[in-house]
Please model this.
Amino acid sequence: MTEQHPAFTESEERLTLRREVAKLASGYGREYFTNAARSGGKTTDLWLAIGKNGYLGINIPEEYGGGGGGIGDIAAVCEELAAQGCPLLMMVVSPAICGTVISRFGTEEQKQRWLPGICDGTQTMAFAITEPDAGTNSHNITTTARRAPSTGSGTGPGSGDEAGWILNGRKIYISGVDEAANVLVVARAEDPSTGSGQVPTKGKPCLFVVPTDAPGFEYTPIPMEIVSPEQQFSVFIDDVRLPADALVGDEDAGLVQLFAGLNPERIMAASFSTGLARYALDKAVAYVKEREVFGAPIGTHQGLAHPLAQSKIEIELARLMTQKAAALYDAGDDAGAGEAANMAKYAAAEAACDAADRAVQAHGGNGITQEYGVAGLLVAARAGRIAPVSREMILNFVGMHSLGLPKSY
Model:
């Protein structure tokens, strides 16, 4: 019988996982992360170390090389990495979004093909949903997939002579495409009643695994102010031919499958933010304990101590909501998890922004130097208010679904 724990605490197994990940990540640290970012390098060795130790696929079933855990476990890994100064965006994407979707909806052959590489880090998978003219409104996605007979030149296993797919469209702000072997692309299956080149009126969102080296698939980096070795890309998909089995799940399932990946995305984004917030707060606390002005550590002054205490409270509240969201998701309560995941993501992003700002202020002039390493957290934390869903859309969601208010958009 599974040991029961109070709802407000994590199991000893989860706490051990956190300690071990923190120990691993501390051997790399913030300097390693920022040096890679500023030199154009990558954090591949850290990524592979996470995979080698079994943490990268901890949420994926054991039969495919994973740890058999839940989204709460992979969220803990993401948080502890960020708390050691190594916030990895691809943790949100490859094991959590893509790994979850394929685990839940993929065929046995698809699971065998893609999941082991996600688990050990050798076959990272990116996720492409955002488009230049759709943005937050995913209902306006125009990337299309139309059925077409294969000529035998399809990409990957199963490309033979069966009917395949041809994808066309454009995506933007897609993380880590240059480090990924494949991309899980959201497209609309073209309604046969619409002509070629027209925006389908009835097509539902479908999910396709596209190799990054497929003919017609191109990407260019987007210059960003954020200090991170993981880049953002514009993606161009021009007549990319795929085999029939590149489609993950049911063509007619629509948003059900898509949201199976988006709830974990929000939970992971919350963990990413709480990890960043913890790192910022730890840096600030250490500094105000050591820095002396007028004969006493500056942390003795309430003007500095109280804002940091506020951050501690905000971070712990966000962490609790994140753990609730993960527990609901792992229990199969998708509706409850959706509400909690949105709230967690909102609270965590706010906590991270506040913690980063207070950390810079606590450092004074030192806070805006590269040497002390806190100024770069401002943009990283601020991104959490925008992606993967904006704070305004979360407030819209809570207003409409939690409070029963009229839809405002």
